[in-house]
Design a protein that fits this description.
- This protein has 414 residues and is α+β, with helices and mostly antiparallel strands.
- It contains nine helices and 17 strands.
- The strands form four sheets. It has a six-stranded antiparallel sheet with strand order 3-4-17-15-9-10. Strands 5, 6, 7, 8, 13 and 14 form a six-stranded antiparallel sheet that branches.
- α1 runs antiparallel to α3.
Length: 414
């Protein structure tokens, strides 16, 4: 009988596990009363015969405007303009609503780019016991502890995740970050470093758009460490810059967030033609940029352990030449720990056809993908990517989605 995942310890942030020959993974589980097969509700999957069609998406709005899609199936929007001031542009690019989108056209290019961000923060105050489990209950003490440590993250619309989304007259920068949640369990704001690093990357790009992603990340990371707003924290990062002249996408990735380029094949079906590889020290311990006080480092050294700390030059780098019709997705591990790139292919093929104008409806397409993945992540009978990895690692059968923050930045090229 499969073990059902009901709670997962946050990403690991130190190397203690490396010194232990017999590792016990901190996964809470129950034995399900009813065993079910693979479930990929909301996706037409090659691993399952059933199919759930999504409602058609149809929107209209003024070309080139920003749009806030508060519903996947309702037109709600507003046209917004802002000055060329870097400060005002920065404030605008750091305050996107869930499902909002914009279209950017470059003077000397035949291509235009519609970009959207969508997000779904994890419910950090939820009791992990389910109605049919009857085994595991947080209890009042744990619930109060959750409330205390979740305060800052709970107030963040993207949870511990964050996004990068901005343009200049020569290009667009897009990406995601994921604060390592292990710090929240020790009483620190695990969303601070992803938020501040996203701020710095955005501002540096707006001021110096000709810099490479690596140059921007290195400068941004140094500024975060020097500024002192972030007292302690760690984050993954995955972002890229689109050259507005020739459609070249230069991307870097550090950790287990993800990006993929989807392109139609000869049968007019979307296929993932390029994607990033996760960088991990070991299971659930991704490469991470860290801000850690010296006294923490000294104490860890006395214990014979070390925190996981990586540098920008350890990023993987990718180059892509985008074409008309391509869809690019940047997302945190909350999505790819639950569904596969093949599932995203099937979702796009189910929802994007000749009758859908993505210049108008990309925000809804993105938001709906995040919402459907969130539903799967909360399904304790679902064979998630994470549960299958855990099964392979432990040689025990695990089942269940992986609840997590999910943030997705989607780009449509036309």
């Amino acid at each position: 009988m499969s073990k059902r995942i009901v709670a997962i310890t946050s990403k690991l942030l130190d190397g203690n596990i490396l010194a232990r020959p017999n590792v016990t993974l901190k996964i809470k589980y129950t034995l399900p009363s009813i065993q079910t097969g693979n479930q990929r509700a909301g996706f037409h999957s090659s691993r399952q015969k059933h199919r759930t069609k999504n409602a058609n998406i149809s929107f209209s709005n003024e070309y080139g405007s920003f749009k806030n899609s508060n519903s996947c199936f309702t037109k709600i929007g507003s046209t917004r303009k802002f000055s060329s001031s870097t400060d005002e542009a920065f404030r605008r690019f750091r305050s996107f609503a869930n499902g909002e989108q914009f279209t950017k056209v470059f003077v000397d290019s035949a291509l235009s780019y519609t970009v959207s961000v969508a997000y779904s923060p994890k419910d950090r105050l939820k009791n992990n016991a389910s109605a049919d489990d009857g085994v595991y209950d947080d209890g009042e003490f744990v619930q109060n502890f959750k409330l205390l440590n979740a305060k800052n993250v709970y107030e963040s619309p993207t949870g511990e995740d964050n996004y990068i989304l901005a343009y200049t007259e020569i290009g667009i920068v897009v990406g995601v970050l994921d604060g390592v949640g292990g710090w929240a369990e020790q009483g620190y704001d695990s969303s601070a470093i992803s938020r501040e690093l996203a701020n710095k990357i955005t501002k540096i790009y707006l001021e110096s758009p000709k810099l490479t992603p690596m140059e921007i990340l290195s400068l941004a990371y140094e500024q975060v460490k020097e500024e002192g707003i972030v007292k302690v924290g760690s984050t993954t990062v995955c972002f890229g810059i689109i050259d507005g002249n020739d459609g070249r996408l230069s991307t870097l990735n550090l950790g287990d967030s993800w990006f993929g380029v989807f392109r139609k094949d000869e049968n007019e079906k979307y296929k993932c033609i390029q994607q990033s590889s996760e960088q991990v020290h070991y299971f659930n311990a991704p490469y991470q940029l860290s801000v850690i006080p010296q006294d923490f480092l000294d104490a860890a050294k006395k214990r014979g352990t070390a925190y996981l700390m990586n540098e920008p030059d350890e990023c993987d780098n990718y180059e892509s030449k985008l074409r008309s019709g391509d869809i690019v997705v940047f997302t945190t591990d909350g999505m790819v720990d639950n569904i596969l790139p093949e599932d995203i292919e099937l979702y796009l093929n189910d929802n994007v056809d000749d009758g859908v104008n993505l210049n108008e409806s990309l925000g809804s397409l993105n938001k709906n993908l995040v919402q459907q993945t969130t539903v799967l992540s909360l399904n304790t009978n679902y064979k998630s990517v994470f549960s299958q990895k855990l099964t392979s690692l432990t040689n025990q059968d695990y089942i269940g989605g992986k609840p997590d923050d999910i943030t997705s930045v989607m780009v449509y090229v036309k």
